[in-house]
Amino acid sequence: MSIDFEIPAEAKAIREKVRKFVHDECIPAEKELDTKPLADVLGPLRKKARAQGLWCPFVPKEYGGMGLGPLANALVQMELGESMLGALALNTQGPDDASMMTILAHGTEYQKEKFLKPLLNGEKRICFSMTEKAAGADATGMQTTAVKDGNENYILNGEKWFSSSASVADMALVMAKTDPNAPRHKQYSTFIVELPNPGYRIKRNVANMAIEGPHDDVIHGGHSEIEIRDLKVPADNLLGGEGNGFNMGQHRLAYGRLRHGMHNVAKAQRALDMAVAHVTKRSTFGQLLADRQAVQFMLADCASELYIGRLMLLHIAYKAEKGLDIRQENSIAKIFHAHMVHKVIDTAIQLHGALGFSQDTPLAKWYTQVRSQRLVDGPDEVHKWKIGKNVIKAFREHGTTASAAGGDLL
């Protein structure tokens, strides 16, 4: 029996529709951000997207989304990432998307009506407050506490760090320790917090190395340092029950890692296209850059990286469609795509010469932005540690590392 790599015709059609929307609408609209308010640019884009049936790709149709499965959604996301407005136009931007999925999967009917509905309609945004300075990548090191005050409320105290989009959010998912005596992974719970709230204070947006452009503070929402003091949260806002915050958080982050990878493929593809467009018209010393073997080798390396990256994501999407375990592959892909996009953009800058080093193209801005991919949703070192542990475990149990190193793909 042969292995079938054919993408269903319906999924191909959706991909082409999204690709056309990104190239015809989103990328041209990016230039308008220099002179217009974001709402004046994004509003019409969203209206056009909804009119074409392009809205919340991963959300079931009964909730107003496109109802796409993992494979079709991956194909869509690998197109949307070519434009900074792509995901926003379809209301599938991070970190909102993963939080929508979490509330959809674990929320009560009350929570879905009150909190999820305005998110799905694109009326509100949500951030995810898990990371803390002291804990870093170790989510079980969180110190923020949630103490029940009678039966009606929880009182939260602590601090959060790098809560992406907090400064533009209308609500937050906040993880806190509810039972310090429970098993390590059952100590934490997640709460839906309506914002603004005096108990949830943004101390500052942490400045970082990324070059910022017009409206970036709204589009990306910054990375906020949060002080949580006597924050009163109704018990009805407890998401998924006490002690389930860690597992829900890891599931949420798992999708975020894949979405980063999907968008990285798209961004790398656009960078490669820009590089090829440049070298096919730029001449030096009487010869087109495109005719130089060294340049062709550089382009070949980029194309190879993109090919591997796409195959990784499509294989993971296949396993997700089948309900198979994707944790090992997810960690491998997370690391690979973070380095891949950095390498391709770096190569595109090199091929543009001084123009690439300038800010006359978006390449320099992208370069400073994608460096964060090796840190967000777990740094390289944490995922390599997990991958390596699984390789050793596979050898001890089976006498071979194949099942943990891609030899047993299905």
TrEMBL record:
Domain Acyl-CoA dehydrogenase/oxidase C-terminal: 243-391
Gene3D superfamilies: Acyl-CoA dehydrogenase/oxidase, N-terminal domain, Butyryl-CoA Dehydrogenase, subunit A, domain 2, Butyryl-CoA Dehydrogenase, subunit A, domain 3
Transmembrane segments: none
Coiled-coil residues: none
Pfam families registered for this protein in UniProt: Acyl-CoA_dh_1, Acyl-CoA_dh_M, Acyl-CoA_dh_N
Cofactor: FAD
Annotated Acyl-CoA dehydrogenase/oxidase N-terminal domain residues: 9-123
Acyl-CoA oxidase/dehydrogenase middle domain boundaries: 127-213
Transferase is among the record's keywords: no
SUPFAM superfamilies in UniProt: Acyl-CoA dehydrogenase C-terminal domain-like, Acyl-CoA dehydrogenase NM domain-like
Protein's UniProt keywords contain Oxidoreductase: yes
UniProt keyword annotations, A-Z: FAD, Flavoprotein, Oxidoreductase
Record-stated family: Belongs to the acyl-CoA dehydrogenase family.
Protein name listed in UniProt: Acyl-CoA dehydrogenase family protein
Species annotation: Bradyrhizobium jicamae
Lineage summary: Bacteria, Pseudomonadati, Pseudomonadota, Alphaproteobacteria, Hyphomicrobiales
